Amino acid sequence: MHGPGLRGAGEVSYSVQLSSSEAPLGPDKTPGVGMRAAVMIEPGRPLEVRELTPRALRPTEVHLRIDASGVCRSDETIRRHGMGGLGPVILGHEGAGTVLEVGSQVGDLSPGNRVIGAFQPACGSCWHCVRSRTHHCEQIMHVATQAHWKDDHSGDRTWSMSGLGTFAEEAVVDRMSVVAVNTDLPAEQLALIGCAVMTGVGAALNTARIEPGSVVAVLGCGGVGQFVVQGARIAGASRIVAIDPVLRKREAATANGATDVIDPTTADAIEVVRDMTGGCGADYAFEVALSGPTLRQAYDLCRNAGTVVAVGMPTAGTTVEFDAYQLFSTEKRLLGCYYGSGQVRRDFPRLVALAEAGRLDLAGAVSRRIALDDVNEAFVAMANGGVIRSVIVPSAPVRADLRGGSA
Question: I need a surface site. Which of 228, 232, 271, 362 has the fewest CB within 10 A?
């Protein structure tokens, strides 16, 4: 079974490399010779920047230079709790890069192509993919459990988060895990499309399918929540209510199209939304705060026959209670939203086009650009609520002002 753009297995094996003049790697970098990456050695500990060497490139794989990688709350979840017993693991799943080398069966990518990583692969031929549900591609476990690297110091095999591992100078990925894009947008903006943008805008346009003129409430306005707000604006919502306890995030939501903001620490969001809507509630309510109580709150502030969308990834085992009769009688739709119900080969180019047309603001979500060595400070800033997104640019200098963990 071959994914999109793969040649037949019987063809002669070869690989193509990008010369340093076509994609400069810096004075000390050569494709396939080793690179630096932020690695989770053990769950709960700070990441360590290690020197790693790749194994031989397989026929369906692509070797990338990572140009930028966003730091997402899901990365922090994996850092704290691990990745199903696999380790050590290069974290990072939201990234953009440039192709350095392709395997023998990769026929539609060439060295120098710009790509965005997709943390959910799209093989194009499994049961879900042929039914336009590539966000549930059956190849995810295969892709996510390949060890592409070896630690130069310990000799340990090293895995990549979601088959990507973008907290690094380079990555080796399966072809089905990247989407080529033809654009001049900066890498730090393109990287966000791989997770936050696809999830947030996709939740609004693909999962909920917001109708023009609707009232939309967004609970939780971090990186993903900001793009839910933008997705609602793009869809033509008449009123967008952003609910978050952090002032900076409410201000960012207003800049992204929210018409109203609520601080849930000083006001009852359910009552305020009902007052805004003549007692009915929101047509669509999006939970992006990663908790059971906020999902229940989203349900309660949604009108009868409205749509509630669970976008945030809570810790496994989180429970929410609903009155079964209420669920029946109110006809509220409760939808899960995994990866914005995204079809990445269709949606990534669309999101790029929206950004190029000025209808989707990517730059505003980039709170700061940091070096690979500052990755642990990005987790501190995220916990403090001081950023929408920190973006790692491996070539960036280490910032002295991050040493105290300031936002």
Answer: 271
Distance (Å) of CA 243 to CA 210, 249, 298: 18, 9, 10
Its sign, for the CA torsion 376, 379, 384, 386, is: positive
The terminus-to-terminus CA distance of the chain in angstroms comes to 47
Long-range pairs, 273-279, Cβ under 8 A, ≥24: 273/217, 273/241, 273/301, 274/301, 276/215, 276/239, 276/241, 277/215, 277/303
- Yes or no: say if 279 and 305 are a contact pair by the CB < 8 Å rule: no
Measured between alpha carbons, how far is 264 from 327 in angstroms, rounded to an integer?
A: 25
Mention every residue, 6+ apart, whose C-beta is less than 8 A from residue 275.
none
Residue among 156, 164, 116, 157 at smallest CA distance from 140? 164
Q: In the structure encoding, which two tokens stand for residue 250, read together?
A: 């409410």
* Letter string b/e over residues 125-158, b meaning 16 or more CB atoms within 10 A of that residue's CB: bbeebeeebbbbbebbeebbebebbbbeeeebeb
Contact between 218 and 242 (Cβ < 8 Å): yes
Q: What is the pTM of this model?
A: 0.87
Say how many C-beta atoms besides its own lie within 10 A of residue 8's C-beta: 8
In whole angstroms, give the CA distance from residue 215 to residue 237. Answer: 6
pLDDT of 81 reads: 84
Cβ atoms of 316 and 292 within 8 Å: the answer is: no
* 44 CB burial (10 A radius; 0-12, 13-18, 19+): exposed
Q: pLDDT tens digits, residue range 142-159?
A: 888 888 888 877 788 898
Q: Which domains does the chain have, with CATH numbers?
A: 16-185+362-402 (3.90.180.10), 196-338 (3.40.50.720)
SS3 label, residue 72: coil
